[in-house]
Amino acid sequence: MKALVWHGKEDVRYDTVSDPEIEHPRDAIIKVTSCAICGSDLHLFHNLIPAMLPGDILGHESMGEVVEVGTAAKGTLKKGDRVVIPFTIQCGECDQCRRGNFSVCQRTNRKGELGDKVFGHRTAGLFGYTHLTGGYPGGQAEYLRVPFADTTHVKVPDGIDDEKLLFLSDILPTGWQAAVQADIQPGDTVAVWGCGPVGQMTIRSAILLGAEQVIAIDHLPERLSMAAAAGAITINFMEESVIDRLNELTGGEGPHKCIDAVGAESHVNTGQPDTILDRAKQMLLAENDRPHVLREMIYVCRPAGVISIIGVYTGLVDKVPMGQAMNKGLTFRMAQAHVPRWTGDLLRRIEDGQIDPSFVITHKVDLSQGPEMYRTFRDKADGCIKVMLRP
Amino acid sequence: MSLTNLTHIARSEGDPRIERKGPSSLTGPDRLARALGWFSIGLGVAELVAPGRIARTLGLDGKEGLIRAYGARELASAVPTLSIDKPVGLAARLGGDALDLATLATALHRDNPQRRNAAIATAMVAGITLLDLAAYAGVKAVHRRDPGNERDYSDRSGLPRGPQASRGLARKDFQIPPDYRAEGTVADALPTSVA
Fold it and tell me: Which domains does chain A have, with CATH numbers?
């Protein structure tokens, strides 16, 4: 089969690889009909996260048709089922899964000892996202082996295009969880840093959850225009002070809820000198991530407010103002999305016409154009916001 | 045995193996920049480790300290050149090339018994400078954002009922789960404060 394979920093190739096989009775094999490139794939593209190896297949946003089912998964899946595959692999049985914390399932990381050492305790297996999370082959491919398939799938109906359903795998439940983490109440002003695909889903989730005012922060005109389309007030941080504008919009009190949909790779520019220092430290391996957004959120958030972090961080950060956070009594809530916790409800909202996630797709191409699309997406060229790939 | 076959020991037997490599996301300018970055490392190490030999070979006796400093400069410019911020590194390399050429120019006088070596080194640095220029221009070109071609997505609300009608729609049938609640008010439970 064909697949997008990681060969090193900025080196993704459209390779011919052997087909996946059933390895465990709970496995299933799906024929991928659609997949996507995620913003967090760019952290792998940039080799920011250790534990990628040349030959790893990328991709954690996939959907398709079940073509083979292991004996233990036959009770819940059959050939021909149309499914979206969450980026998290969950057993459904461990204590964390029973609490709904699927992205920290304790059983599905087949290299859990590595996760234990690096994170303190292991997290769930993920598709195509380094050997820290199990080293599972990803779904930017023609076929995908789904471990724990009986609990790692979302069945979806025929009659709705892949474009509307694919993002149940990641960015829609991720954006939804970002908003839920913020515990949005009527009357709240919610500020969202980052208008990439997850930020766009977060904005719409915040609107649906009743935020009185949603403020979207970015610097790319096309992303700001997409945010404004959902009713967000936009701030271009290259043109005005984010702090000043947020205070202006909130009567000087700051947003009630602040959501970080940026994560490890804050935009580096001279207007935000801390980002230049972070970048220099990254190059010298003295820091892993660039937490400019964290610093800004902590500073401007209203006392006793909530900071919701959904942007992916990879390792160590520096100069985070814990003094400000502690003295202002901020609540922090963060996680990789517990996808299955939200997908049933979100599928219903898609079917009901409350949200149509296909709005975010700007590029729809053949899988063979994947290497070029990684460049386009990373360079934010050609108005690229979200790339959907067809094997 | 290729690297990707070697790394397969870190995967399970059933995981797909590469049978044939295909086109890469790395462009020609990217690869040129990488090669120049590694060249910087090699040259930088040599200048740090053997400044005396280099100085004698080129007739730049007494300039060992300067050569060592240039070695540190080469290593410093290698870091961004090999990173995703290649233009920064390549610009630093171009600045370094100018310094190298200026320094070598001082060794081209007739009284330098190593004049021929200095001339060869000057020609090599001039050639490397052209490569640095090509890499810099190439990397900037392939990774540009094409300003002026900005797209307008203001018709993409993603909310089929419209933003206004969608505001608070989920509150009718979605409760924030107890383990995600942070808000609340105790105003009703507090005794009235006396002014």
Answer: 2-170+337-390 (3.90.180.10), 174-334 (3.40.50.720)
